[in-house]
Amino acid sequence: MTTPPTGTSVVRAINARAALRLLLDRGPLSRPEIAAILAVSKPTASHLLTQLRDSGLVKSDGNRDGAIGRAAELFSVNETSAYTAAMDVTPERISVVVVDLVGTRVGEFELATVDGETADPAARVREALTGACAPAGIAVADLRRVVLGIQGAIDPTTDRLRFAAHLPGWQDAGLSAMLQEQLGVPVDVENDVNLVVIAERAHGVATAHDSFAVLWVSDGIGMGLMFGDRVHRGLTGGAGEISDLPLPGAPLPHEANEFGASGMQAIAGAPAIGRVLAEHGFDQDTPAAAMRAAVASGSDDATAALEEIARRLALGLSAVVAIVDPDLIVLAGDIALAGGERLRALVQRHLHAAVVARPPVLLSGLDENPVLDGALRLALARIQDEVLGTVSGGQSRSQGDDD
User: Is the pLDDT of residue 18 over 90?
Assistant: First the structure.
C-alpha cells in the first residue's frame, strides 16, 4: 500500500487532482489557463501537467493560434487511459454501451434473450460486454468498472437479487461478487429505476430538485427515490419497490404466488392497465399502444379508462407522498409516456385530492433508454473519481500499488 502523501506532497496531490478534474470538465486548456483557474503559478501548472502527462492521464492536444505571440499548447485528458461499461438487463435483452474516460461512446451491443432459456448471468454478461468492447479494440479485462442496471434490487447483506422472479437464473446469492470474479472487473449491480432517477437529476425534469420520486409505469411498476441529492436504496436495497405495496382491491403477496399478482403491480402494472383499456374498447397489441389509442380518443370510454388508471396510480402514490413528502413526482416508463399530458394531469388531480401535500407531477423528459443513460452517468462518475484518486503528490500510482 502506498504511503499517503504528507506536507507539500498533499498540496501537490490536491493541485494535480484539481488540474485533472478541470481538464475532465472543461478541457482542452493551455498552461496559462490552468494556472489562472487554479490560482497557481505558471511553473506550477507546467509541473502538474508534466506529472499528469508522464502518468498517461493527460496528453498534448495541439496548439491554439493566438492573435499575438506564440500559439499556446493545449492539454486534454487522455481518454484511452480508462474505460467503463453500462448495461441494461431486461427479460428480453441485455444492452451495453462502453465509454472512455471522457464519456465518449466507443462501443455498443445488444444481446437478445433466447425464449425459455435459464440465464447463466456471467456468460451472458461476458458475451454482451465482449460485443460492446470489440469496436473499441479492447478486452473486457480492460474495463475499469461495469455498472449493470436490472429490474430488481440487490440486498447488500446477501448480495442476492430480490424482486426479480421474472429473471430466472439471476437470483443466486453473491451475484455481484460472482460476476466480478468471473469477469475480472469490478461490477456494480443497480436497480433500473434508481438509474432513471440519476438520469432525471442530471438532465431531465428534476434538475432543479434534489429530493424527488420517479414512478416507472411499464411491464412492471417501480419507483426510485432521491433525498438530498443521493439515491435512497434502503437497508436491504428495496427502497422504492412499490410493486409490492399493499393496496385496497389487490391481493397480498402471500395470497398470490404468481409474479405480479399482488400489491400495486396487480392493479397498475401493464397487464392490469391493459385489461382496463380492453374493457373500454382499446385492445391493441400492447398496453402502451392501447394507451396511445385511448389518449387520442375523445370518447366517453377513453375518459373512463384513463380516469380509472390515473386513480390506481394516484392511490399508490398517495402512500409514498404521505410518508416521504417529495418535492416532485416524475412519471416515466413507456406506458406513462404513452399516456402523455392527459394521463399526467389526471394522476396529479387524483393525487392532490387524496393527500395534504401536493407535489407537482411531471412527465419524464428523457430520450432513448433512461436506464442505460443513468448507468452510464454513474459508471463514468465512479471511474473518474477512481482515476483522480490514483493521482499522488509526485506521480500517478498504478492500480497494483493499492493491492
Answer: yes
Which uninterrupted H or E stretch holds 17? helix 8-26
Residue 182 covered by a domain: yes
Instruction: Tell whether 71 is covered by a domain.
Output: yes
Q: Are residues 216 and 183 in the same domain?
A: no
CA angle, residues 243, 375, 229, in degrees to nearest 5: 75
Q: Give the per-residue pLDDT at 402.
A: 39
Average pLDDT estimate for 182-208: 96
CB 17 within 8 A of CB 7: no
Amino acid identity at 274:
G
Amino acid, single-letter form, for residue 248: P
Query: Greatest CA separation found in the chain?
Result: 80
Tell me how far apart the alpha carbons of residues 240 and 243 are, in angstroms, rounded to a whole number. Answer: 8
CA distance 297 to 342: 11
Q: Long-range contacts of range 199-203, CB-CB < 8 Å, 24 or more positions apart?
A: 199/366, 199/370, 199/373, 199/374, 199/377, 200/330, 200/332, 200/364, 200/366, 200/370, 201/226, 201/229, 202/374, 202/377, 203/366
179 and 229 part of one domain: no
**Local structure of 54: helix, strand or coil:** helix
pLDDT value of residue 70: 66
Q: Tell me what pLDDT residue 65 has.
A: 63
Give the per-residue pLDDT at 368.
Answer: 85
Domain span at residue 69 reads: 8-77
- State the DSSP string of 329-380: EEEESHHHHHHHHHHHHHHHHHHHHH-SS---EEE----S-HHHHHHHHHHH
First-to-last C-alpha distance (Å) of the chain: 7
Per-residue confidence (pLDDT) for residue 398, from 0 to 100: 41
- Based on the number of CB atoms within 10 Å of its own CB, is 219 exposed (0-12), middle (13-18) or buried (19 or more)? buried
74 sits in which H/E element: strand 72-77
